[in-house]
């Protein structure tokens, strides 16, 4: 890990708390549906409304997903964990407390590995605990009144807490992306950030290098990687300004406003003791038998890291390429299908990191939505490596496939006249003509000017209207000039 850059002489310290909504059909402690977007209060049952006499019943599927996560990050899955009540008053929390886990969470420790550019980073996890979400206050369209929608109340969340390990906003964003990719890969969260299924709180402080940790402020509810990075960048400058002006940072909870790019204090931060946590008497301790963990282990998909290592081993990919190819399960599958079909794994990785990613990013698409299939990409790569088309021609074929102007690689090559001249007789004639017409360059080359050779290659390419295979032109020229 490289030394983090200082900002105006300060080191940035970041710890993230991420809420991943678990993809169960029903809620954490009731049978109501978790489906997004229903009419307000149509998916809130008596338990979610906190009607007297109701009792919570834990959703096994939520626990199962927590176990999957724990195994994936190399954490300890606690054989016994405790649900606690976190007490606070808010209109969208009818019970007056949130069921969470406090002293004994279900997942303890673990780590997440990711890259910032080509540098490998590891962030340690403190814990991941199960809890329920609150409802929503709706401030729009109610004639100045606030509405309460309890559809979200009781939705299962896994709150994933890191150690204060990150040292830049870029690192925090890269961690969040890697974590997002992981929970989607594990099929425990749908990852939909617009719908709030994955949201981060960023704890940020600054310090002089070597000094103890500074006081942190917590930026709540960041639901995009871009906002996460922007919010931290703003917050860091704000804290440094304050300290440089002789002030000191007060622990606080702040909100980020995407419209202004600024963070703003919401409330001074509660300490844990303000919540009066205590074990929930309505819920017995959560006991997870070793057999359950073993079963989940047996059902785990191949994880990104293992898949990346396999890609290095089986296909000879460099470590960086292997990480890029395993950015999602779908991406890994696409790479593998392409590599197998064309037998050129490195070229497949290059195309996927280059042209394919460029177009996917530009159109904000994921690999599942690529208009060019793995079979088509493999066919295209095949035609580059057998010399039928040049790289430039290949880019044109790719564009045609992407835009739907063509669907069959060879047909596109023929229709657009992109086939490289590979007939040596024809090429030989062109090279002879070029040599005859450029006596000066030939002379210069013989006198030792390497540049003159390139000029001759250029002339031959031009004479072939770009259809000659440059490698063949080179070879022919060398032979004829040397002879
Ligand atoms: P809470 O927010 O629940 O009061 P914690 O003390 O558990 O919580 O810390 C929450 C997060 O704050 C963790 O991700 C932790 O790494 C991070 N954190 C703790 N101290 C600092 C600090 N000085 N600077 C930045 N982040 C910090
Ligand atoms: Mg917190």
Characterize the structure shown.
This protein has 483 residues and is of the alpha+beta class. The longest helix has 20 residues, at 225-244. Strands 1, 2, 6, 7, 8, 11, 12, 13, 14 and 15 form a ten-stranded mixed β-sheet that branches. Strands 5-4-16 form a three-stranded antiparallel β-sheet, with no helix packed on it. Strands 3-17 form a two-stranded antiparallel ribbon. It has helices at residues 60-72, 169-185, 225-244, 290-298, 304-315, 319-325, 329-342, 345-362, 374-385, 391-403, 409-415, 424-437, 439-446, 450-463, 470-482; strands spanning 11-21, 76-77, 80-81, 83-87, 97-101, 107-108, 111-116, 119-132, 136-138, 147-149, 156-162, 198-207, 217-222, 252-257, 262-268, 278-279, 286-287. The two termini are 55 Å apart. Helix 5 (304-315) runs parallel beside helix 7 (329-342), helix 12 packs across helix 14 and helix 13 (439-446) packs antiparallel against helix 14 (450-463). Helices cover 40% and strands 19% of the residues. A hairpin with a 2-residue loop joins strand 7 and strand 8 (119-132). Adenosine-5'-diphosphate binds at residues 13-17, 161-164, 203-205, 213-214, 216, 218, 272. Residues 13-17, 161-164, 203-205, 213-214, 216, 218, 272 line the site of adenosine-5'-diphosphate (ADP).
Features:
10-stranded mixed β-sheet; 483 residues; elongated; alpha+beta; 40% helix; binds magnesium ion; binds adenosine-5'-diphosphate; 3-stranded antiparallel β-sheet; 19% strand
